[in-house]
Amino acid sequence: MQAFAGTSFDSLDSYALTELPVPEPGPGQVRLRVAATALGYVDGLMAQGRYQIKPPLPYVPGGEIAGVLEAVGAGVSTLAVGDRVVTWQLGGGMADCVVVDAADVDGVPGDLPLPVAAAMLVDYQTAHFTLFERGRLTATDRVLVLGAAGGVGAAAVALAARAGAFVIAAAGADDKRQAARALGAQATVDYRQPDWREALKACAPGGAVDVVVDPVGGDAFEPAFRSLAKDGRHLVLGFAGGAIGRLPANLALLKNADLLGVDVRHFLATQPERARQVRGSLFRRVRDGVLPPPGMTRFTLAQAADALRATLSRERRGKVVVVPQGGVADTGRLA
To answer: 138-262, what's its fold?
Structure first.
């Protein structure tokens, strides 16, 4: 099989398409023929050794994987060859096939295209966990979504809007803000502008927000927190802006506000059945047209290095998805 494998974390130049033996599933494992692998910001960091977790070498990037089962190991009774599935791993997806534990696999509804399932697997679950588990979102809340054109940001806009909240999307480019409006945002702001907080006050009902969804950090962090109403919740998902924001502690006291970390992997580890139920519900809502499918920028496996570079670019549009050449044909209706 072909795999995009790296022998060091020095740079993406250390990676190349390589012929590797087809792996065989052991007891309790399954082998997927990969149909699509979605990539996020973390994948770009991990492939270059810049993430807090450093996987062993040689390393095959890509963890948000969708495909079709082509082999099952001993003891696997709930899955069968031909099943359409997704799984979230720390890597292995930028290859023709991958072996994973059967317990880490979820089924995909028949009418949901596998690239869509891969693209929404992590971002939609993260956005849902952020808003409803950590953020305690209600229909009366005013929500500011930073990085609203990113994978998690766009999913948060769509989910919050459909929950009845007033959504303000923050993004730097006009086309990104227009895309957020199409997802359901009632207002937008350009947070690259020095007076963006004044623009936020002007469009937010009452001049403040109740919830901040923040996967960006950096210079937007403190102004966003200062924009909270009393009893507001600022949800920290990451630092795609490149810098870890800082905050005077007295602001939390003055606002009577919560600064909340969002670790979706902790949710998956401690509440696996609840997380599985949420994933299934999100898949069905996209299949049924209740939620919009994620925007995608597609690459082939031969373009794997460009795909990883795109994860770190502020200019990308939609979720980066890698589709192996000659891979699984998928006929879902949402492509």
So the answer is: Rossmann fold (3.40.50)
pLDDT of residue 41: 85
Residue type, 83: D
Question: Is the pTM here over 0.90, yes or no?
Answer: yes
Q: What 3-state DSSP class applies to 197? A: helix
CB 7 within 8 A of CB 14: yes
Dihedral sign computed on CA atoms, order 292, 295, 300, 306: negative
- Domain ranges (residues) in the chain: 2-121+271-323, 138-262
Q: Which amino acid would we find at residue 327?
A: G
Q: Which residue has the tokens 């950096």?
A: 218
Low-confidence ranges of the chain (pLDDT < 50): 327, 329-335
Domain 2-121+271-323 CATH class label = alpha beta
Q: What is the SS3 string spanning 17-72?
A: EEECCCCCCCCCEEEEEEEEEEECHHHHHHCCCCCCCCCCCCECCCCEEEEEEEEE
Distance CA 102, CA 270 (A): 18
Dig out the tokens for 234 from the structure. 């600022």
Beta bridge partners of 292: none
Task: State how far the Cα of 52 lies from the Cα of 42, in Å rounded to an integer.
Answer: 10
Q: Are 17 and 36 in contact (CB under 8 A)?
A: no
Distance CA 312, CA 321 (A): 14
Amino acid at 72: V
Residue 139 is predicted with a pLDDT of: 98
